[in-house]
Design brief:
The protein is built from 14 helices and 21 strands. The protein has helices at 78-87, 105-116, 133-136, 140-145, 166-178, 190-202, 209-214, 217-234, 246-257, 269-272, 295-306, 322-326, 345-355, 361-375; strands at 3-15, 20-28, 31-36, 41-48, 53-56, 58-60, 68-69, 72-73, 90-96, 122-128, 150-154, 182-186, 238-240, 262-266, 312-313, 393-397, 402-403, 422-423, 426-432, 435-439, 442-443. Strands 1, 2, 3, 4, 5, 16, 19, 20 and 21 form a 9-stranded mixed β-sheet that branches. It has an 8-stranded parallel β-sheet with strand order 6-9-10-11-12-13-14-15. β11, α5 (166-178) and β12 form a beta-alpha-beta unit. It is globular. The structure holds N-(aminocarbonyl)-beta-alanine and zinc ion (2 copies).
Length: 458
């Protein structure tokens, strides 16, 4: 008897974390149920992917939809941000809770889940701990048991009331690790950042470039050093978000060489943009934290990707409109920090990574799919194409050429930090659990809702 499928994707070059092979993909009940060079069967729908690359749906492990920053909110909510994600080949986002003053972690999770329900792609949450960390220690085991196993703290942003001290960091890390969770850290040495910021402001140096001169690579490396020391002493695992500099990278790699189980994430902005953006006419729009660095830093990060030393590339998607950015023009310390990225993640990494010969296709799949899925407990349901996995697929035409243009993007930011950058290919389909979200230039997933992902402890 012939197999019956809901969807067949035929004749495509299927790329996994290991290799690439011309395979047909059979999908039934939202899962991949057959993979073979030539699938025979009936299907409700067939997509011919001849000449195209078929990837697992990508995971953006670091997004901030609609979060409060500097008296405003990042401009994408889960609805608009998830449409942008789908057009960016991303089928799962991992966003963050926002802990209000005095709020329990459980309440912060509940509030955020409620907002995330609007998402058209699947989603999970990292649990931010920004208020009274010591008071929250006892809540951590129940949050992990409930399926929220990754937490995030900041070693900076004191004035915004979000910073954790190193003593508090030690206690949170110990508790999260002891109960099978993973702690993520935004690593910048706050004392150094505050000292440099105060110096520049006192001297009237408020232009965008002084954002980079205040939040230096040294500040990043210093915080990673301290965090890795503590993780080493505790024997705890640690995930460093958005590593931006060669100094930060080398500090993380040195800690790993000493036996610390440290995961490293970087973002596309630290690979393809430099601090020269801050010298542009509207340079303040590129303000993000940590800041953009030098070409040498970009090259060091690319090399680390090629050498499999970085685990994950995610975006830190935190967009603001031109109006939001321009409201504080000329005052770097008042500009809402963050950049749009979720729609550009895969096109940039494919173009400037794979097409430029810096990383291979399987490496790309590891960085944007397999490793984030593994580290955050979603593998092998997510992050790969194999029998039993969710049928999250991306079909990419490697023969097309495009350039990034804000007017064609789908988030609410009305500009792109990557405007005009050539892209070596074009998205044809994004498929979430067997349902087509994007077909060509059209979003056809209005009726599709993302599913919340909870995971078992490590
Ligand atoms: O500037 C950024 N990246 N804003 C989002 C919050 C953070 O620090 O990740
Ligand atoms: Zn951060
Ligand atoms: Zn972030």
């Amino acid at each position: 008897m012939k197999d019956k499928f809901d969807l067949l994707v035929v004749n495509g070059e299927v790329i996994t974390e290991r290799d690439s092979e011309k395979l047909d993909v059979g999908i039934r009940d939202a899962r991949v149920v057959a993979l073979s060079p030539s699938l025979k069967g009936n299907s409700d729908r067939v997509i011919d992917a001849a000449g195209k690359l078929v990837f697992p749906g990508f995971i953006d492990a670091h997004t901030h939809m609609g979060i409060p920053i500097m008296n405003t909110y990042s401009s994408d909510d889960f609805e608009s941000g998830s449409v942008a994600a789908a057009f960016g080949s991303v089928t799962t986002i991992i966003d963050f809770t926002v802990q209000e003053k005095g709020q329990t972690l459980a309440d912060s999770v509940a509030v955020r889940i409620d907002k995330a329900r609007k998402s058209h792609v699947d989603y999970a949450l990292h649990v931010n701990i920004t208020d009274q960390p010591e008071k929250r220690l006892d809540e951590i085991p129940a949050i992990i048991a409930d399926g929220f196993t990754s937490f995030k703290v900041f070693s900076t942003y004191r004035q915004a009331g979000m910073m954790i001290t190193w003593d508090e960091f030690r206690k949170v890390l110990q508790q999260v690790n002891a109960h099978g969770g993973l702690l993520c850290l935004h690593a910048e040495d706050n004392d150094l950042v505050e000292t440099l910021t105060a110096e520049h402001l006192a001297a009237g140096r408020k232009a965008a470039i002084f954002h980079a001169r205040s939040r230096t690579a040294e500040a990043e490396a210093k915080a990673i050093t301290r965090a890795a020391e503590i993780a080493g002493e505790l024997g705890a695992s640690l995930y460093i978000v958005h590593v931006s500099s060669q100094a930060g990278l080398e500090t993380g790699l040195n800690a790993r060489a000493r036996g610390v189980n440290i995961y490293l994430e970087t973002c596309p902005q630290y690979l393809v943009l430099t601090e020269e953006c801050y010298r542009r006419e509207n340079g303040h729009r590129w303000i993000t934290t940590p800041p953009l660095r030098t070409q040498q830093d970009c090259e060091a990060l690319w090399q680390a990707l090629a050498d499999d030393q970085i685990d994950v590339v995610a975006t830190d998607h935190c967009p603001f409109t031109i109006q939001q950015k321009d409201a504080s023009r000329g005052a770097f310390h008042l500009t809402p920090n963050g950049l749009p990225g979720v729609e550009a993640l895969f096109p940039l990494l494919y173009t400037y990574g794979v097409a430029h010969g810096r990383v291979t296709l399987p490496q790309l799949v590891r960085l944007l799919a397999k490793r984030p899925a593994e580290i955050f407990g979603l593998y092998p349901q997510k992050g790969t194409i194999q029998i039993g996995a969710d049928a999250d697929l991306v079909i990419w035409d490697p023969n097309a050429e495009e350039a990034i243009a804000a007017k064609h993007l789908h988030g609410k930011a009305d500009w792109s930090p990557y405007e005009g950058m050539p892209i070596a290919g074009k998205l044809e389909y994004t498929i979430l659990r067997g349902q087509v979200l994007v077909q060509g230039d059209e979003f056809v997933g209005q009726e599709v809702r993302g599913v919340e992902r909870r995971v078992a402890k490590r």
